[in-house]
Every structure is written in structure tokens, then in C-alpha cells.
Design brief:
7-stranded mixed β-sheet; 3-stranded antiparallel β-sheet; 20% strand; binds S-adenosylmethionine
Length: 255
């Protein structure tokens, strides 16, 4: 595919090697979506998501996804937010700060390895009273049981999967945690962007099938009580409709 951005003529030209070169208005919705998609791939290769922090802790996310997630958290006001994949703790601190601001909710984070300097920083953080850390494999039965014991009957639960992103692991996590999700809430299989990164220098050729979006799609086929659905935007005065995201096909809403 050859893309030409012609700022003089305000055109965006797409040449896929076929008979015709498509010409789009550079300032159109379609051109914005195509440019954004490419921007996501280039930015991922440049480790753009590894440049942010929340209240002092590194958070490995695209800010776009953080804002969209905040829109969902504010609407659902979960009592418990469970996340697999803690790393430096920035995402846990982010959710905890939202819980504190809303006056509702707490956070459970699971990671196979919480490095001592990360544990120390998380445990001494202002938001730690809202956070429970669990160290272990997210699909290990003892860990899943431990998480389930921390959720009280009737609590509203949101689950975010951000640990090992192979298709099989995400599928195992979906199977392990989906029954905790409250109707109307979500289990989010993050980083499905991998399916579009198989041809990027830092990517891997198997990611076109071995990715979280493929796991979410497979899970949804077997679980009609869940539907893959991008959450509606609470505010939109544009013609745009699609998230600019590292999490395509991620949002599984429990009906
Ligand atoms: C992408 S990072 C998490 C980023 C974090 N959620 C954030 O937004 O900053 C992935 C983490 O998953 C953890 N991990 C990998 N395999 C795991 C597994 N089987 N169970 C639990 N955690 C795992 C890694 O140790 C790593 O810290």
C-alpha cells in the first residue's frame, strides 16, 4: 500500500497496487481514521505508550484508551476494578484515583512478578489504600480463587486484562474471570492492536492471529451473554464514531 498525503491539494491518495488510486479529501473522517491507524502503528513502534505516568507512576497505555476507560468507569461506577498486569502500577493508581474522586470503588491488581522497587512505590503511594496487590500467574487457580474471595456478592465488577497478550493466555483469563463481571459492565481484552502490528519492525509475524482481539472474538462466539461492543461516547459533537485505540475488539459487555 502506498499512501500519499498531498497537503497542497488537500488530498489523501491510496494506491493498493490495483487499477485505481483512491483519492480522499484529506480533511475527511475516512482520511482521519486511516492516518490515525498508521499513526498508532508508527507510535507503537516508537514506544509512544512508554512515555506516560499517572500521579508519578509509569502507565503503559495510550492516553486515548485511558480517557475512554475513564468514561466507562464513571458511567458504571464499579465497586471493584480487577486488572491483570500491574508492571509499574500506573494503571492501578489511575483507577484508584478515579475511585477516590467518585467516592466509590477499589482496585485489585494481579501480576506474575511485582518487582521490589515497584511494590515499594505502589505500597507507599497516596492511592494505595484503594489497591490490593496479588502476586502470581493470573490464570493460576489459587490466584483466581484469591481474587474471587475479595469480591463480595452483589458488587459491581469491571475486569481489565493487560498481562500476557498471547491469544491462549487471554482466552484463559477470559474463562477465569468473566463470571465476576456484572451485567452491563465489561471485561476488556486490551492490546488487540497486535493484530495490526505483525508487519511493524518491533512486531512479530504470528501476531496477526496470536493476539487478544482474536481471543475476545473466540470467547464471544462461545458466550452469547457477552457482546463485543465499543462503549458509546458520552460526549460527541463530531461525525467521528471509532475509538483511536490500542484496544480494538477489546470491550466485552455482559448483557
Ligand atoms: C503491559 S504490562 C502491564 C501494564 C499496566 N497495566 C499499565 O497499564 O501500566 C504487563 C504485565 O503483565 C505481567 N504478566 C505477564 N504474564 C503474566 C501472567 N501470566 N500473570 C500475571 N501477570 C503477568 C508482566 O509481569 C507485566 O508486568
Amino acid at each position: 500500500m502506498k499512501l500519499t498525503i498531498d497537503t497542497d491539494n488537500k488530498k489523501f491518495l491510496l494506491d493498493d497496487g490495483g487499477d485505481e488510486v483512491r483519492s480522499l479529501d484529506l480533511y475527511s473522517k475516512e482520511a482521519f481514521e486511516l492516518i490515525s491507524h498508521l499513526w498508532l502503528k508508527v507510535g507503537w513502534n516508537q514506544k509512544y505508550p512508554y512515555t506516560f505516568s499517572w500521579m508519578g507512576r509509569p502507565i503503559i497505555q495510550l492516553p486515548e484508551d485511558m480517557i475512554r476507560l475513564q468514561e466507562v468507569i464513571y458511567r458504571i461506577k464499579p465497586d471493584v476494578i480487577i486488572e491483570t498486569g500491574v508492571a509499574h502500577g500506573g494503571s492501578l493508581v489511575y483507577y484508584a484515583s478515579l475511585c477516590k474522586a467518585m467516592g466509590n470503588g477499589r482496585v485489585i491488581g494481579i501480576d506474575i512478578e511485582i518487582r521490589p522497587h515497584n511494590r515499594k512505590a505502589i505500597e507507599s503511594h497516596e492511592m494505595f489504600p484503594y489497591i490490593t496487590l496479588i502476586e502470581g500467574g493470573s490464570t493460576d487457580k489459587t490466584i483466581v480463587d484469591q481474587v474471587k474471595l475479595l469480591v463480595k456478592p452483589g458488587e459491581t465488577v469491571l475486569v481489565i486484562l493487560d498481562s500476557n497478550h498471547t491469544k491462549q493466555h487471554v482466552l484463559d483469563e477470559l474463562n477465569a474471570y468473566h463470571d465476576l463481571v456484572t451485567p452491563g459492565s465489561y471485561i476488556v481484552a486490551t492490546d488487540g492492536i497486535m493484530r495490526d502490528l505483525h508487519d511493524v519492525p518491533r512486531g512479530s509475524s504470528d501476531w496477526d492471529w496470536n493476539n487478544p482481539a482474536a481471543a475476545a472474538a473466540k470467547f464471544a462466539r462461545k458466550h452469547p451473554e457477552f457482546i463485543i461492543e465499543q462503549p458509546a461516547w458520552p460526549f460527541n459533537e463530531s461525525d467521528l464514531t471509532e475509538n483511536i485505540t490500542h484496544w480494538p475488539g477489546a470491550w466485552l459487555r455482559r448483557k
